Amino acid sequence: MEMDKRQLSELIFHWIKSNGELHYVLRDVQVKLLFDRLVLRYSFEELAKVFRASPGKVRQIFEAMLIRIERSMSKELGKLLRDYNNYLDNPKSRTRKHQFEFSRIYLN
Q1: pLDDT tens across 64-102, in order?
Q2: Residue 100: its pLDDT value, please?
Q3: Cβ pair 100, 1 in contact under 8 A
Q4: CA 17 to CA 71: how far, in whole Å?
Q5: Are 10 and 42 in contact (CB under 8 A)?
Q6: HSE-CB of 69 using CA atoms within 13 angstroms
Q7: Distance between CA atoms of 108 and 106, rounded to whole angstroms?
Q8: Which pLDDT value is given to residue 92?
Q9: Banded model confidence at residue 8, pLDDT cuts 50, 70, 90
């Protein structure tokens, strides 16, 4: 199933806002960081300005959040979010549109 950027952002937005387990696993500021990175597509440099930290520190915190999601929620979900984060870092590395296998995602 192919989705455009707007549809994918809407799906991730609704998942972040409605997933109670995610809000239990992550702190509010971490949920905001996840939202800003995946839905609003901010770069780590932009996030560093918002959170008043270095881009390397923000990237390190984001990676730690993904590890926490992998351990607490689902390895597949963590891998999917990591792949999407890598895609946001370098969107030209893919020759075709980024696709997700929705048959493997459990949205509660």
Answers
A1: 999 999 999 989 888 889 988 988 888 776 544 555 555
A2: 55
A3: yes
A4: 20
A5: no
A6: 23
A7: 6
A8: 75
A9: confident
Angle at 50 between CA 47 and CA 56, to 5 degrees: 40
Tokens 């459990």 sit on residue? 106
3-state SS track over the chain: CCCCHHHHHHHHHHHHHHCHHHHHHCCHHHHHHHHHHHCCCCCHHHHHHHHCCCHHHHHHHHHHHHHHHHHHCCHHHHHHHHHHHHHHHCHHHCCCCCCCCHHHCCCC
Tokens coding 81: 């979010």
Residue 6: predicted pLDDT: 82
Sign of CA dihedral 8, 12, 15, 21: positive
Q: What is the pLDDT of residue 107?
A: 54
Select from 66, 8, 18 the least CA-distant residue to 39.
Answer: 8
State residue 96's pLDDT score: 44
Task: State the average pLDDT for the chain.
Answer: 85
